[in-house]
Amino acid sequence: MDYVGLSSGETLRALSALLSSTQDDEEEEEDCGKVTPSAQLGPGQIGPPPQKHKEELSASTEKNSKDIWNEEEVAEGSPFIDFADPRPQPEYEIILKQSVGTEDVFFGLSRKDPSSMCCEALLVKIKLPDTRATDVILDVKEKFLDLRTQKHKLGLHLPHPVHAEDSRAQFFSEREELQVTLLIKRSMDFFNKQ
């Protein structure tokens, strides 16, 4: 076998030709001059120009750099949209609750952790301004909460299936707020209760 040495003149000239791209660049520029402007567009030029919304999101994320996402980016539940009913949707908040005793807090004996898998109930807080308790019509199904008043409507798909028959609702007239407590239904409830 004959090996061509690295110091041979032909090898150095071939390497020099590969590294010098001045001739290739000049040829490409001449070719680009012949192409129509629409053919020079890339994927970034397709569609409407970027909105300032991204700048606002980046400004709000700079407030706390440890946050994974912005609260405005994540919807809590998926609301049911009824286009035939013009009543507005009231403000609401979904809170996960779990029963914690001293054995959980100090000793960790019951294997509970702060995750949603260890929660026993959903608390849905619904703001209902200018509403009385007698005006509220509430219907709770296994995976859906339906609330109707004269001024508001709320159809909410629940994040977990619940025991609809064991639900409780309490209306606080001084805060104009309805609190609905829903017990979460799990397939392994009989195993988790120890």
Helix and strand succession?
HHHEEHEEEEEEH
Mean pLDDT, nearest integer? 75
Radius of gyration, taken over Cα atoms and rounded to an integer in Å: 32 Å
State the strand order across the main sheet: 1-6-5-4
Distance between the termini: 78 Å
Helix content bin: 10-25%
Which CATH class of the domain at 73-192 applies here? Mainly Beta
What is the second-level CATH architecture of the domain at 73-192?
A: Sandwich
By helix and strand content, what is the structural category? alpha+beta
Kindly report the CATH topology of the domain at 73-192. Immunoglobulin-like
Overall number of strands: 8
Major sheet: 4 strands, antiparallel
Shape: elongated
Strand residue percentage: 15-25%
Catalogue the unreliable spans: none
Number of helices, where a helix is a run of at least 4 consecutive DSSP H or I residues? 5
GO molecular function: dynein intermediate chain binding; protein-folding chaperone binding
Protein name: Dynein axonemal assembly factor 6
Family: Belongs to the PIH1 family.
Domain PIH1D1/2/3 CS-like: 89-184
Secondary-structure map with pairings?
Elements: H1 9-19, H2 22-34, H3 53-61, E1 78-79, E2 92-97, H4 102-107, E3 121-127, E4 137-140, E5 144-148, E6 153-157, E7 162-172, E8 177-184, H5 189-192
Antiparallel strand pairs: 1-6, 2-3, 3-8, 4-5, 5-6, 7-8
